[in-house]
Structures are given as structure tokens and as C-alpha cells.
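Dear Dr. L.,

I hope this message finds you well. Following up on our conversation about the binding site, I have prepared a predicted three-dimensional model of the protein together with 4'-deoxy-4'-aminopyridoxal-5'-phosphate. For your records, I am including the exact sequence and ligand specification that went into the calculation, followed by the C-alpha cells. Please feel free to forward this to your student if that is useful.
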Amino acid sequence: FSWWSSVQPAPRDPILGVTSAYLADTHPDKVNVGVGAYRNDQGKPVVLECVREAERRIGGQELMEYLPMGGSAKYCELSVGLAYGEDAQVLKDKKVASVQALSGTGAVRLFADFIKRFRPESEAYLPMPTWSNHHNIFRDANVNQHTYRYYLASTRGLDFEGLKEDLKKAPNNSVILLHACAHNPTGVDPTPEQWKALSKLFKEKEHFPLFDMAYQGFASGDTQRDNQAIRIFLEDGHQLACAQSFAKSMGLYGQRIGCLSVVCDDAAQATVVKSQLEYIARPMYSSPPVHGSLLVATILSDSDLKTLWFKEVKDMADRIIGMRTALRKNLEDLGSKQNWEHITNQIGMFCYSGLTPEQVDRMTQEFHIYMTKNGRISMAGVTSGNVKYLANAIHEVTK
Ligand code: PMP
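The resulting structure of the complex is given below.
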């Protein structure tokens, strides 16, 4: 008798599997442009100076106690202020229920569980393509999921007509997942005018917008520009939810620090909704970890540290934008006949290169360059030192 004989190996994660393969390769020129984690121009992980200073300030404090089930209220308030804009009317009216979550993943999962419990008839619509883990999250929360058209391969840009058509066809009161900025994996975002049109469409269809905001500040370098979609929807009076993560924007990946916020009818409803979010969290993990929320709250509540963070997040965004320019230029200088404009048009951490799975295989086998099968290149892994090598490999496999 064996308890676990029926257990089969789980499918490999399409993103995390790339890193394992990279680590196993001993070639000196190997490059990892798979996982979305920021690297400096020397290819090294970065701890932001604002985070170091926040650590110095909180060091030695009595910070081992449990947080409440919903996490640090101060952290949540600061976090939501950043996402919605500090002057947002819904915040003044105390209409927003917010809880600390286990980074962006945990925030989306908590909301999916909330949907299942309180709007079980609602189905979720995810962009095609989207971050692969979104599909796992809604599957495991037992929320029916569909996709809507988002990316048009022929233009390597937004399929705005297809997107609108699919959201019109979706049943009223669907939950629509939107990437607030720096869409992963495509790097393609709607323009402000397109967001406004979408907001109108959501009104007509009474769809619920769930904003996944994993890259605020990372896209443009300006946190208040990267939240424009949310501000547009709030101005139109939508109820919305927002899943925030500080993994990328503050480089707090492993601290698992995020926030789920839900806009309600009024303050009383916000209190009720928050209590139910806590009630979902309690049997899963009881309460979230303390360190990340202290770091973020320390940075966001101090004007010097906040200014330093704004500068550092802009530096990261600018380095990535610079690498986009360099990659495109190198390809053009090599005489590539392909159009590489999308490399500089796309925004955020990723370049959706258009490489086919076969070309990606060649990138890895012949050049030891590791990336996901869908042709996504993490621009954060590109440096002055490897951009030429990368461009040459792309040129060779796309000739
Ligand atoms: N949403 C999107 C679109 C992402 O790209 C990511 C990070 N890869 C996340 C959510 C969540 O990441 P984390 O749980 O590390 O905050």
C-alpha cells in the first residue's frame, strides 16, 4: 500500500522552469532573460537604497508580533493611496476595503476566492495572452475563466477592436482582469483614450474591473503616470478592485508584500467587505508577514525616502528603456531586415519579441540564451555587456 502512488509529476512552470535550465548550463556566455526580476547593468540583483535605509530605521524595533489578519492598516492605506492617487474621492469617503496580501499573486488569489464566495455566478475574463499564473489562480479558486483578445501579432500591438468586441460579447457583470500598466508578457498597454473608451464600455456592460498592478513606476518611471488607468476608471465612478505588488517596484520580491483593495458603495460596506477578506485569509495563512509591510510603510510615509524611491524606480525604468533602444539599434546595425520598432514601443519589463517557439529553441541551444517559449524577453536581464550578443543571436535565428 502506498499513499501517494497515484501522484504524477506536476507540469513544469513555464517561467520558473527557464531559470532552472539556465542555472544548469555551464557555458560562460549564457544569458537569462526568462524570469522578470530586475538586474543592474552588471547583471546583478539590486537592493534599493531606500529599502536599505528603511531597514536601518526599523532595525531593532519590536517587529516580531503577529499582524492583524488583514495586515498592517497603515501600510494598506499608504499602498492604496499610491495606486489610486492620494486625492482619490473614494479614499476620502472611506469606500475602499484593503488588506495586505502575499504579494501580487496572493492579492489576485484572495480576490478570486472572494468572487467565488460572493458572486459565484460571475465568470472571469483574462487577456490573451496574460501572465501564465493568472490561469492557475482562477482555476484553483474554481472561478470559470475565459479569455479576451488583447494582442495582435501582425502589428505587435493592441488588438483594440478585438478586445472591445470580446468584452461586449461577454455576459454582463463579468469580472475582467486588466493589467494596470506594463502588460505582462506583451509590454503593450492601451492609450489613455483607449482606457477611457474601455471605462465607458465597462459601464454599459456592468463589468467589474480587476486591475493587476504589478509594475507601478516600473513602466514609465513615474508612479502617478502608471496608475492612469485606475484614475480614469475611478473618475467614471466604477467600483473596482486592485491587486498591488511591491516585488518589482521596490525590489521586494521575496518579501511577498502586496495589497488587495476593493472599492465599495460606502464606508459601512467597505468594513463588511474587509471583514470577509480577512475571514478568507484566516484559514489559509492567518496573517501576512510583517517585514515587507514595515519597509514599504517606512518608505511611503517619509518624504525623503519616498523621493529617493521615486528616483530609484525611475532609474530602473530608464535603464530598461535604454536597453530597448540599444537592442533595437544593434539589430538594425547588424542589417536585420525585420521591423524591430515594437522593441522600443512596448513598455515595462518585457519585450514580446515575436520569436517563434522554434526560434526560441535555437536561441537556447545555439546561444545559451534562456527565455520563455512565447518569445518573451525580460529586458531587465539585458545589459550593456550582453545586448550585442543577444542582438546577434536574435538576428541569426530570424534571418
Ligand atoms: N501579476 C503580474 C502581471 C505579474 O507579472 C506578476 C509578477 N510576475 C505578478 C502579478 C505577481 O508577482 P508577485 O506575486 O511576485 O508580486
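In brief: The longest helix spans residues 303-333.

With kind regards,
A. P.
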